[in-house]
Amino acid sequence: MIFDTLDNADRYASLNSRFAKAFAYLRTVDGTQELGRVDLEGDDCYAIVQAYETKPVEKALFEAHRKYIDVQFVHSGRETILWAPLAAMKEETMAFTEEKDAALWKLVPDVTPLHISGGQFAILYPEDAHAPCVEWDKPEQVFKVVVKVAVE
Q1: What is the pLDDT of residues 82-99, one digit of tens each?
Q2: How far, in Å, CA of 37 to CA of 90, rounded?
Q3: For a tag site, which of 12, 57, 110, 148 has the least CB within 10 Å?
Q4: Considering the entire predicted model, what is its pTM?
Q5: For the chain, domain boundaries
Q6: DSSP assignment, residue 63?
């Protein structure tokens, strides 16, 4: 897991050949993008533009992916992303499906909260279980882009 600001994104471009493309797109995000999928490099790198209200921690579930790395970028608003190592997941609520490239688990007691706000991103690898979209202090509107980057 990596947590940083978009200003420092170039230092991570060498970690995956598609990160430069992902960060170049994120630099164009101004909050007026249409919601939904944006292809950057077909199924190997695409963005999902989202707007939502954060949810209470009681409604959160951990997720993890196998085929994709998430680059979760908050343009505006703020939220908490709960992080824990995949090995700490105990109670599965949805078995892994290829179609969704995800499995889900109930919250575990030992988590690291990432407080993420406008201009910040988190890179979440397949070994990083994460519960996004959680309230920081109170419910808040968030404009966010998640870039799905294929694992190399």
Answers
A1: 999 999 999 999 999 999
A2: 31
A3: 110
A4: 0.96
A5: 2-150
A6: E
